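Write out the 3D structure for:
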Amino acid sequence: MPDLTPRQIVQELDRYIVGQEAAKKAVAVAIRNRWRRQQLSEDLRKDITPKNIIMIGPTGVGKTEIARRLAQLVGAPFLKVEATKYTEVGYHGRDVESMVRDLTESAIGMVRQEQRTLVETQAKERVTDRLLDLLLPQSGTWEPDNTEENDRRQRTREKMKARLEAGELEERSVELSVEHKAVPVQIFSNLGMEQMDVDFQNMFERIMPKQNQQRQLKIREARRILLEQETEALIDRQVVTEKAVELAENQGIIFLDELDKVCGPPSSHGPDVSRQGVQRDLLPVVEGTTVNTRYGPVRTDHILFIAAGAFHASKPSDLMPELQGRFPIRVELTDLKREDFLRILTEPKHALTKQYAELLATEGVTLEYTADGIEALADIAYEVNRTTQNIGARRLHTVLERVVEEVSYEGPDLPEKRVVINSAYVRGRLGEILKKEDLSRFIL
């Protein structure tokens, strides 16, 4: 995990997300506390649990983006899930423990990639040897009594190796035995796949005989398949599993979106399987429990949970008191002002305006934005958000897509390859829609 100070974390987040200083500070401190915890003695470390965070704010102000960029920044296993996809245990649908299994899968992928990088050089050497064996079947054999023949074969092998490494033999065909991948085993159960903790797929693969198929392949294709085979052979699965479980337990981040959709008064009739029930099931997972996964038990005591919700129709105090207590840090994200829209269009590393300019540059079209054109885009986005539904920065996608729609459509055939987006152009493209209030509600 990179040794970043809270200030450095906030600076990195500033490159992609405009404003929302309170939320950035809260997550930066939470991440730094993880690093601090790792520096403590083993005895004290196990008693320090993460302080989970609830982000409260309307849609489109940067809640999800903050969590996603944060995970990329610190190289931690990250999972984004919606609270609305879960139901109470025992009902059809996913139970909340499946989020921990998904996080562990994410950690496995990260550790495997790391291990692949470590064994890559050794795997490439082994691939070269196997390709030489395919090109010169007898060159690897050794006859104790015939020294001259052995030397001749060795010289031939060295020459062929030099040609192979120089890329002269890429188009030559070799016959390679390729393992036929078995179709994944589907298990249908009223409990859903999440309950099937035993790795049935691997079990069946071990029982069933492997099916190999002889294929004629060009050397460049054979090299790719052989590299995959050799890398898999060199990676120690046990090491991957142990490291991944440790990484998920100590560095994992679960972003629980739409938490406000599962709070509210208890159902007055019938089982309330997707609101109060889900909250009850969340309690032990967030507090700290052991979840069985196909890679062994995973403890959730030190996983950081970041929850988010708009809380329009409800408020955090509508959550069960026990669940509120498990999210001690609350940060409120503010509505976006006109000035924020201006900054969003110009400041982030991959701002929307830059994205559209680069997309059209592939057709040879130069898209230029004037200062008053960007101001007009910000004004219109802010005004539409104010008068209709407030969807935050996502409104800019709607407005900008509408503005450049004609250029995008005509792009390949435009005689004039330079298009200037100024205030007159923006208002010309959106003027008719903005005049008719009913139409603007549907289109913008």
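DSSP finds 17 helices and eleven strands in the chain.
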